[in-house]
TrEMBL record:
Gene3D superfamilies: Ribonuclease H-like superfamily/Ribonuclease H
Domain Integrase catalytic span(s) in chain numbering: 1-142
Organism of derivation: Periweissella fabaria
Lineage, top ranks: Bacteria, Bacillati, Bacillota, Bacilli, Lactobacillales
PROSITE patterns documented for this protein: INTEGRASE
UniProt superkingdom: Bacteria
InterPro entries referenced in this protein's UniProt entry, alphabetically: Integrase_cat-core, RNaseH-like_sf, RNaseH_sf, Transposase_IS3/IS150/IS904
Signal peptide per UniProt: none
SUPFAM superfamilies: Ribonuclease H-like
Protein name: Transposase InsK for insertion sequence element IS150
Amino acid sequence: MISGYLILPTYSGYLVAYNLSLTETTEATIDTFKQAFNVANNAEPLVHTDRGAAYTSSLFNDFMFQKNTIRSMSRPGIPYDNSLMERYWNEFKVRWLRTHPCPTTYGELEMLVAEGVKYFNTIRHSEKRNGLTPEEFRHKAISKQLIA
């Protein structure tokens, strides 16, 4: 089973990092967060995860501690805690994966996911972001912070 890891800021919907792995591992999770910290200039964010084994491992928690993050985890049996990520996954599957031919190789899957991430980040406009793409919305928010 292939596992996917996503880092999605709540404010913009811009997917800052993702990773595919043949199995769920702590190392793949940490690699995804390393990508995110590089994109976000080593920000010290609040990180919310589910209670999967990779997120509860001491290796992952030590890594997050080193990055000065504040941790939040979903409560057992409360799926609404992850509603933002669940909605993103649903949109990605319904509006992207299901509208394209099913990949037959791991390489094809990687390409399909990369194209989908690019589409959702840079092409797909949203009314909840005033008609902007997540990338446009993110850049606008960053420029306002630099000015303020």
